[in-house]
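Changelog note: in this version the structure field was regenerated for every chain. One regenerated record is shown below for reference.
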Amino acid sequence: MPRIMGVDIPTNKKIKISLTYIYGIGSATALEILEKAKIDPDKRASELNDADISAIVKLLDSSYEVEGDLRRQLALSVRRLQAVNCYRGRRHKHSLPCRGQRTKTNARTRKGKKKTIGAVRDKSARNQMK
């Protein structure tokens, strides 16, 4: 199993698909990298030799932000927005959508499980309140 940028890429898939397992690389970027490295995109990841893998790693190091560096950069950007206390920063801080989506009915993925406010769930707690 080839290891690129600290990620084990699947060997049984084509290299153009396998490269997308690296954070920050999509299908278009994967094809662009393979074109620059002069590697056939339809080749399986298991068929790559050490020279091919080193060519890919060298390209990723020199030209692209991927994996840890990219995650760190995004986290710093969000922290900066929160520090300036701008609208997007406040939305990030409160775990709400920050790109204009509606929140009255949807946004459950971002907001988390529904929290019922003001209602008592079980009967024993209701009886204690009386």
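Spot check on this record: The chain has two domains: 3-63, 69-128. Helices lie at 15-18, 27-37, 50-63, 67-84, 87-93, 108-111, 123-129.
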